[in-house]
Write a structure and sequence with these properties.
The chain is mainly beta. Helix content is 7%, strand content 52%. Bound molecules: zinc ion.
């Protein structure tokens, strides 16, 4: 079993590892759980409460809403992660990232805005705020806000 959050209402749901979709018992919104491993250049929007992984040498630009995010290639855009956003060695990320947890390996590059906090997606408006241009007011409501503008080391430094 694994736990996912409904992106529409924040309701927490236990689902089996094999489930590919379900309907939120609280708000009846359909929730996709497929894992995506991107191996070709991709542009657009991806939404799943499963994993979105960008393979080495692959680049994606656009918006991602997912349960877990792993970048081993290049990403440019916006990411809302209901779990961990992981940037692996050699990856390049130029993005606005909102996640419950953030990991950046040595040799990964991150430029952009990072919002990390336990309340990601728990309020009904969070998912919608993700689509709106970020403002000071929005970031101030997230428990922890850091802005990184440098190559990440084993533990990212805040500037
Ligand atoms: Zn729901």
């Amino acid at each position: 079993m694994r736990e996912v959050s409904c992106p529409a209402c924040g309701h927490k749901i236990e689902v089996s590892q094999k489930a590919l979709s379900l309907r939120c018992p609280a708000c009846t919104q359909p929730i996709q759980l497929d894992d995506f491993v991107l191996e070709q250049s991709t542009e657009g929007r991806l939404k799943t409460m499963g994993l979105v992984a960008i393979a080495p040498g692959c680049d994606m630009s656009g918006e991602v809403v997912c349960g877990a995010f792993r970048n081993e290639g290049q990403f440019e855009g916006q990411v809302l992660v209901y779990g961990t956003a992981a940037l692996l060695a050699g990856s390049q990320t130029q993005a606005s990232v909102t996640a419950r947890a953030f990991e950046a390996a040595g040799g990964s590059t991150f430029v952009g805005r990072l919002m990390v906090g336990p309340r990601v997606g728990l309020a009904p408006t969070d998912a919608h705020r993700f689509d709106a241009p970020a403002s000071r007011d929005q970031t101030a409501r997230v428990p922890a806000v850091v802005i990184l503008r440098q190559t990440a080391t084993a533990s990212p430094q805040v500037v």
